């Protein structure tokens, strides 16, 4: 079980103000990132990935990616976030963090398409074209990039 799920399970058991204060005190951390683009830029730098490689692997229009990474486009669509995260070679937990920062639904374990996407991430497939081919083979909609 990942950290996010553990926290979600603990949140579901909170019943009163004392529980709420305790949870906040134990789990508070200053938000490192306010927007998805900050997170993506940080992960790319952390992994030593040039933006050109992320652009190429995401298969998203270069100008659109630069608008995202420069902060001009702060709220890209869910599929664009997923594609950029795949191209940036991020983990499952990092993908969920990116989706939350982008104001999008996190990975749904009951959605077959999301499950196949996670399998691609766990296999470290970083080319969105390969992910889309895999999704189509599983009769799922490809990432809309």
From TrEMBL:
<protein>
    <recommendedName>
        <fullName>XRE family transcriptional regulator</fullName>
    </recommendedName>
</protein>
<dbReference type="InterPro" id="IPR010982">
    <property type="entry name" value="Lambda_DNA-bd_dom_sf"/>
</dbReference>
<dbReference type="GO" id="GO:0003677">
    <property type="term" value="F:DNA binding"/>
</dbReference>
